[in-house]
């Protein structure tokens, strides 16, 4: 186990901002930490990094206390807006970090190449886009091959292509055994890119499961979007008791137990139907369900 949190509680004055939070992150696992503003995500990350203490509970980072030498050496952190010196080139900045960590500066080039910054290595960071600066942050986080990577909103402000590329790198790291804990507000992107989702709501952990299991537990309605063949939308809508959305589409809503039977009804309509799309509840729907106490 790379990270274990057990009953972690944090109070500021009399206010409890984390309330008995417990979860693990295994080697090679990508876990998303979701929560509204002020839910306690950054506080939890600071505790994991050993920057602030918890009031109660225990945290084990790579089998050691947060902030201990072994925990610090094996953990990398990427803050939301990593700041770099604009006058330095990517290469110079990374060499600087390598020296601070007592690592050979010859590692700068492979690290920059790893995050796709090879061609820009000799350009000043002041000329980099936000996505490129985030990659410098990621390259810095990869120094010393961390076993646990903690990322605070790593893709905020990145365009979809940069986000995808960023996650490809995370996927490679996870495949090599790095445990990844990342916070995000971008729900749809973590949907496909993480193995497990932890949801914090006002400091309370309201969910900790795979998306598939959260879907099942929330048992939110599934939408079936039926495309009727030309001129048959009214008949399809009436036979399926669905809602005609436009000239060809008919919407049905059902729960997961009814899904197969409804698909059977649709298929029994034969040539009246052109196609059907099954639309499961989105992560936003699930997130909203659990944040409102639906998991209790
Ligand atoms: N040093 C502090 N002193 C007092 N209260 C604090 C302190 N740091 C954080 N808090 C409070 O703790 C709660 C959790 O804050 P935290 O920054 O962990 O939330 P977050 O989930 O990271 O939010 P965001 O998504 O906005 O970054 C908030 O109510 C915040 O005001």
From TrEMBL:
InterPro entries: AAA+_ATPase, ABC_transporter-like_ATP-bd, ABC_transporter-like_CS, ABC_Transporter_VariousFunc, P-loop_NTPase. It holds the Pfam family ABC_tran. Gene3D superfamilies: P-loop containing nucleotide triphosphate hydrolases (3.40.50.300). Residues 3-227 form the ABC transporter domain. GO terms for molecular function: ATP binding; ATP hydrolysis activity. It comes from the Bacteria. Keywords: ATP-binding, Nucleotide-binding, Transport. PANTHER family: ABC TRANSPORTER ATP-BINDING PROTEIN ALBC-RELATED. This is ABC transporter ATP-binding protein.
């Amino acid at each position: 186990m790379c990270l274990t949190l057990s009953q972690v509680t944090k109070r500021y004055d009399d206010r409890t901002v984390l309330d008995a939070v417990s979860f693990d992150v295994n080697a090679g696992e990508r876990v998303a930490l979701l929560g509204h503003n002020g839910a306690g995500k950054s506080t939890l990350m600071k505790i994991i990094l050993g920057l602030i203490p918890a009031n109660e509970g225990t945290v084990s980072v790579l089998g050691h206390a947060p902030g201990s030498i072994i925990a610090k050496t094996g953990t990398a952190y990427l803050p939301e807006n990593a700041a770099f010196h604009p006058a330095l080139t990517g290469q110079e900045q990374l060499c600087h970090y390598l020296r601070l960590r007592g690592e050979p500066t010859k590692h700068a080039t492979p690290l920059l190449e790893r995050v796709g910054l090879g061609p820009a290595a000799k350009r000043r960071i002041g000329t980099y886009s936000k996505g490129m600066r985030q990659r410098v942050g990621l390259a810095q986080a990869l120094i010393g091959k961390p076993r646990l990577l903690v990322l605070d909103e790593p893709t905020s402000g990145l365009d979809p292509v940069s986000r995808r590329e960023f996650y490809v790198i995370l996927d490679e790291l996870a495949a090599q055994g790095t445990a990844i804990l990342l916070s995000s507000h971008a729900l749809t992107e973590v949907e496909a890119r993480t193995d497990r989702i932890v949801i914090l709501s006002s400091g309370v952990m309201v969910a900790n499961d795979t998306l598939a299991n959260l879907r099942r537990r929330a048992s939110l309605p599934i939408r079936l979007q039926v495309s009727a063949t030309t001129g048959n939308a009214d008949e399809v809508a009436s036979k399926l008791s669905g809602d005609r959305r436009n000239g060809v589409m008919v919407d049905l809503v059902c729960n997961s137990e009814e899904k197969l039977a409804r698909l059977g009804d649709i298929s029994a309509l034969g040539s009246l139907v052109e196609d059907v799309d099954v639309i499961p509840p989105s992560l936003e729907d699930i997130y909203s369900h659990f944040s409102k106490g639906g998991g209790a």
